[in-house]
Design goal:
Layout lengths: L7 H24 L6 H8 L3 H7 L3 H12 L14 H16 L2 H13 L4 H29 L7 H16 L1 H5 L7 H18 L21
Helix pairs in contact: 1-2, 1-4, 1-6, 2-3, 4-7, 5-7, 5-8, 5-10, 6-7, 7-8, 8-10
Length: 223
């Protein structure tokens, strides 16, 4: 289905929204969430206060937008193909690595970590609106493949955590914690491919351990 072409006014609104989100992210990093006012964000982004308040009536709403944009993917509406867990997890893994490789994602985590003692609601927003929806997409995919008989996964939460953890532990956390750390695109592709192969082999529909009923415990908070 083709998407409607935005009108001139919609494009202008989108451009101003992007300027606001970029300015807010930079100021939250520079000054901290508490010391950054909406007025200062309007000044930095070059928009009027009325324009900013129209789009974001509060700092909480603005932070929610930062989370949403950091975790958004261009092809998020396209589900991975069913019936081939290697292809399906390959798509999900590459999307995840692309998300984690964004500078804005690193900025988001740094803001959350720095402000966690005083503003735990920022961490809740980052988890519930950002990480958890993506985790759910992987968990739901594995559950569907289990029910279709493509794989045998007794604990879909654990399997999703294992898969995402193998990727994030290599391509994201060192980048967040170690200044100047870089991972090449070739290495990222290799990491995703190995994670896919590991999960596909561990939860193959035939062979040892290929029994049991998928269960869905509480959401995992790792990876």
């Amino acid at each position: 289905m083709s998407k409607a072409v935005p009108t001139y006014h919609q494009r202008v609104a989108q451009e101003k929204r992007a300027l606001i989100v970029t300015a807010a992210t930079a100021l939250f990093l520079e000054l901290g969430y508490d010391r950054t006012s909406l007025a200062r964000i309007a000044e930095r982004s070059g928009v009027s206060r009325a324009t900013l308040f129209k789009q974001f009536p509060s700092k909480a709403a603005l932070f929610d937008a930062i989370v949403t944009e950091a975790w958004s993917t261009a092809d998020e509406q396209d589900p991975p193909p069913a019936g081939n867990v290697v292809d399906g997890l390959g798509i999900l893994g590459r999307r995840y690595a692309e998300l984690l490789g964004r500078a804005r994602m690193t900025d988001l985590f740094r803001i959350v970590i720095a402000e966690l003692p005083r503003f735990p609601e920022l961490a809740h927003a980052q988890f519930s609106q950002g990480k958890m929806p993506y985790f759910e997409s992987v968990r739901s995919y594995l559950l569907a493949e289990h029910e279709a008989g493509t794989v045998r996964v007794e604990d879909v939460d654990l399997a999703a955590t294992q898969f995402l953890g193998m990727i994030s532990n290599y391509v994201f956390w060192p980048t967040l914690l170690v200044p100047g750390w870089e991972v090449s695109a070739e290495r990222v592709a290799q990491v995703v491919d190995e994670a896919v192969r590991t999960i596909a082999a561990r939860y193959a529909a035939t062979g040892p351990g290929a029994s049991g009923t998928a269960r869905r415990p509480g959401p995992s908070r790792r990876s």
